[in-house]
Amino acid sequence: MSFTNLNIDYVGKFKVFGSLSLALILASVVGLFTKGLNYGVDFSGGVEVQVKFAERVELGQLREVMQENKVPLSQLQSIGDDTQNEFLLKLESDKGDLNAVSNQVGSVLTSKYGEGKFEILKNDIVGPKAGAELRISAFKALLWAIVAIMIYLALRFDYKFAPGAIAALIHDVTIIIGAFILTQKEFSLQIVAALLAIIGYSVNDTVVIYDRVREIETMHPELSTFQTINRALNETMSRTIITSATVLGVSVVMLVWGGPVIQDFFFAMTIGVILGVYSTIFIAIPMTAFYEKFVDKKTVA
């Protein structure tokens, strides 16, 4: 597959796609302060119980049992296919002693299904204070990852390349968070891990194109910055499409058939791969040209 003959003006489309991205970012920020994220047990505190039954149990029936016995159930989902008979119960954190809430689940299951008819595979308890601290630490990890990448790019290339890459990373993370606000999917530690993976993937794609930009600048100093960037993007498009399509294909397969335990992780990854390519082409690289134009006061067109 070759795209070396392409001559698309990517920089010229910056205003259109920049406006679209700005609208999505603003919507995500507004959603964060109005609707908010649906934090998982990791971040909000509570009890998470994974149970496996010896015989088939219907999801609806299990929910009714919990509700009839006033178990503070916030979420219930099956794990794997129906033959596994495994369920994940998430309980609210503001219903008194968390250990008592956890013990209540075992008592209700024993009373309803009998001793030895089920096995508790996991029983995680996170206090509200610990959850809040973990939430702050997770967002700090994202922030420090972005700062470290900014320093690396400034040292590896030139300071003019750093702002565009950082803007693209903030763009990707913010819109993914917006997607979780919109869908109210659970935001947990595994989603933070997905965001960190997306940051790494996105910046890798950006660095490849930055390398090509610098090569063309050296070989063809007569070209303007706009021409250099457009040429670099067109020449690396084959690599971008093949790499991104491969990663996206795996991510979509895992999203559809991977099961509920990892579904949210690959939901974030799928959006992140698409955004990573989009932001590299239409946000990060063009911003380098506009940085030179408005900050360094160079002629770029």
Tell me about this structure.
The chain is an alpha+beta fold and 301 residues long. It folds into two domains: 11-40 and 130-294, Multidrug efflux transporter AcrB transmembrane domain (Multidrug efflux transporter AcrB transmembrane fold), CATH 1.20.1640; 46-126, 2-Layer Sandwich (Alpha-Beta Plaits), CATH 3.30.70. It contains nine helices and six strands. The strands form two sheets. Strands 3-4-2-5 form a four-stranded antiparallel sheet. A two-stranded parallel sheet has the order 1-6. Helix 6 (162-183) runs antiparallel to helix 7. The two termini are 30 Å apart.
What is the mean pLDDT?
85
| Percent strand | 5-15%
Using the coordinates above, name the CATH class of the largest domain. Mainly Alpha
CATH architecture assignment of the largest domain? Up-down Bundle
Q: Give the ordered list of helices and strands.
A: HEHEHEEHEHHEHHH
What does the main sheet amount to?
A: 4 strands, antiparallel
Helical content stands at 55-70%
Number of strands: 6
Number of domains: 2
CATH superfamily heading of the largest domain: Multidrug efflux transporter AcrB transmembrane domain
The dominant shape is elongated
Q: How far apart lie the N and C ends?
A: 30 Å
Q: Give the CATH topology of the largest domain.
A: Multidrug efflux transporter AcrB transmembrane fold
Specify the number of helices.
Answer: 9
Low-confidence stretches: none
Structural class: alpha+beta
Radius of gyration: 24 Å
List keywords for this structure.
301 residues, alpha+beta, Alpha-Beta Plaits
